[in-house]
Amino acid sequence: MGTGHWIRRMGAKGPGDVRLVCFPHAGGAVTFFAGLARALAPDIEVLGVQYPGRQDRHREQPVEDIGRMAAAVGEELGALLSDGRPSAFLGHSMGALVAFEAAVALRGGRSSKDLTHLFASGRAAPSAGPRPGDLLRGDDELLTELRRLGGVGEEILNDPEMLSLIMPVVRADYRALASYRMTPGASLDCPVTVLTGEADPIVSPREAAQWRGLTSADTRLHVFPGGHFYLQDQVPQVAAVVREALLSR
């Protein structure tokens, strides 16, 4: 499944010329994108970024800094993206910030010309700074926020043993969100497609549209039915948007 320390191939390598690198949300792992990977196969190869502290990296210490995560991912992707195949990034929630910073890190390198698109999902533009929900501290507040956003089943949230496994990662990711500040002057030159749920409690369509100011290329906004984890129920619809953006050139 893996292609490196941070990157995981989501399914068999297909014949498609385009690859999509997916960055999970806070507390999330590459399996969040399994349905999307199946929907895009075989035309678009999907890779996932596996952050430390989860699934096959559960023994590793989580990273509490989005810039450090982006730099590490960018370093590994630099060699991968240098094969000349067009590539795009898709990040959901916290993953949109990591994807943006990784894209900025690649922008001046030899592989930047092959980064053709950024899909930013479920997150206000990095220039907006931390959201109120990013500044939570205690476990009780974090659990309340997880319930509010959805995406984690009640059977997990009510299971002390399961919570003991996921809470160190959740705490670390929220510390990373609280401390994150966009790289000064950061911008992109590739198209950006913004994806959001119409009932997302942490980002309005208006806030999502602020991504428009972070690229010199076109920006499009797609609003789907659902909340913060709209993607779980809108896989075919999101796959259609990705296909149109990446394969209709």
From TrEMBL:
What are this entry's molecular-function GO terms? hydrolase activity
**Cited SUPFAM superfamilies:** alpha/beta-Hydrolases (SSF53474)
* InterPro entries in the cross-refs: AB_hydrolase_fold, TEII, Thioesterase
Q: Where does the record locate the signal sequence feature?
A: none
Q: Which UniProt keywords apply?
A: Hydrolase
Domain Thioesterase: start-end pairs: 19-242
**Lineage top rank: taxon:** Bacteria
Q: Which family does it belong to?
A: Belongs to the thioesterase family.
Protein name per the record: Alpha/beta fold hydrolase
